[in-house]
Amino acid sequence: MSDDLCMLTAVETVALLRSGDVSPGELVEAALRRIERVDPQLNALPTLCAERALERARNISSDTTLAGLPIAVKDLNDVAGVRTTYGSPIYSDHVPDRSDLMVERLEQRGAVVVAKSNTPEFGAGGNTFNEVFGETRNPWDTSRTCGGSSGGSAAALASGQVWLATGSDLGGSVRAPAGFCGVVGVRPSPGRVAAGLSPLPFETMSVEGPMGRTVADAALMLDAMAGLDPRDPLSLEAPARPFADAAVSPALPRRVAYSPDLGVTPVAAEVRDACGRAAERLAAAGVDVVEASPDLSGAPEAFQVLRGAGYVAGMDQLYATDRDRLKPDIIWNIEYGLSLSVERIARAEQARGAIFQRMSEFMAGYDLLLCPTACVAPFDLATRWIREVEGVRFDNYVEWLRITSSITLTSCPVVALPCGLTADGLPVGMQLVGRPRGEWQLLSVAAAVEQVFDLAGRVPIDPRSG
Predict the structure, then answer these.
(1) Domain with 431 in it: what CATH number?
(2) Which of 177, 187, 45, 194 is nearest to 113 (CA)?
(3) Which of 18, 61, 153, 202, by CA, is between 20 and 30 Å from 424?
(4) 149 preceded by a cis bond (ω within 30 of 0)
(5) Is 173 annotated in the active site?
(6) Catalytic: 465?
(7) Considering the domain boundaries, does residue 40 fall inside one?
(8) pLDDT string in tens for the chain (466-residue length)
């Protein structure tokens, strides 16, 4: 029976909670049993908080957005009284006294935190591994990566360990693992989900977002996350109608742009083919699909510069005190940031502004922009980052993520959906990019596109060996 509950969608499970047909405590127990059975093969949820979850489950109202639903929280976010490492040996024994804003809000709206999901050190990189907990594997093929940095969340969802999970996204950290694991991830507009308390409260490239198995599940979680908070200067009002309403009002787009590479990156043939077939299915469903892309020239350079400057602003103290305990990729990123001139940073800010303007003009002619969630399919777990695709070499650990990081600069909301499978049966994801601050319309369209792609029922699965 517990596995039967774990196979349900979040929307179905919350309906059972509200009707009283199942209790939060029963769901916590079901999740813990499922985790015990499948997570040793995956290492997606290395930190459990069972006693805390069961205590909370006994004292929660069903008259809330999530009604007592167990969730996983990415190990970059503080949960009061629960070991929170940020994937770093520097914080391997860290137990915060209070939760961050996002976790506070989720718990106020009926979430029960049952586990922390694995992440690369400080969320840096597109493959989930660290020196505290080790590697997280992909449920579709345990010899492959689940992506990163929200890889633990994506793998836990795909294997039925939790119904919803949090993610965060700077260069693609929600979108890439959602695509690699065949689940749904939302990168909302900056400010849609209040974050912090942060030393960089005006940061707009990194956002928090929901991850689920379906568009409706992700929309429900976004309702539980969204809204104003005076402690976040960028936070936005919740929508007049819940995001969950959008997901139950599916409406196919009339005209969409599709680009296999956005003009900024090579893309492996198997990914290009899978996404091309998905675009053809949309066209067969009556959608006007136009192969076109906004002008994103300068985006990879601007992203690298702004990311480097952000690493200096956020991590200079750790670099000064604990450089020898940081992984090499983070050291490289901080030192790259330290090498930047004021002029390069200024040019990157100007380039980002121009990209935003060009994107706004482009999106006026389309309901959506479609493109892959990654330039490759899930790769071998031992490959730390992709160094070459289709004869093009990348010289650092972020360059292979250009197809997501370039979209980051536009500030547009994105839904990452599974859209197809490779010849080896591995998931391929599609980014559905909406208009600025247009999450409601985007989720409505995404729910309809999800039906056309017809892959939403493929998870959860038991882990599969290579």
Answers:
(1) 3.90.1300.10
(2) 45
(3) 153
(4) yes
(5) yes
(6) no
(7) yes
(8) 568 999 999 999 999 999 999 999 999 999 999 999 999 999 999 999 999 999 999 999 999 999 999 999 999 999 999 999 999 999 999 999 999 999 999 999 999 999 999 999 999 999 999 999 999 999 999 999 999 999 999 999 999 999 999 999 999 999 999 999 999 999 999 999 998 788 899 999 999 999 999 999 999 999 999 999 999 999 999 999 999 999 999 999 999 999 999 999 999 999 999 999 999 999 999 999 999 999 999 999 999 999 999 999 999 999 999 999 999 999 999 999 999 999 999 999 999 999 999 999 999 999 999 999 999 999 999 999 999 999 999 999 999 999 999 999 999 999 999 999 999 999 999 999 999 999 999 999 999 999 999 999 999 999 999 8
CA dist., res. 194 & res. 228, Å (int): 7
The H or E element that residue 414 is part of is: strand 414-421
Domain membership of residue 466 (yes or no) is no
Where in the sequence is the domain holding 49, given as residue range(s)?
Answer: 2-458
117, 153, 168, 173: the catalytic one is 173
Q: Which of 74, 206, 327, 406 is labelled catalytic?
A: 74
Confidence (pTM): 0.98
Query: Is 149 marked active-site?
Result: yes
Decide the pairing of beta strands 47-48 and 69-74.
Answer: unpaired
Say which of 149, 159, 189, 235 is annotated catalytic: 149
C-beta of residue 116 within 8 angstroms of C-beta of residue 47 = yes
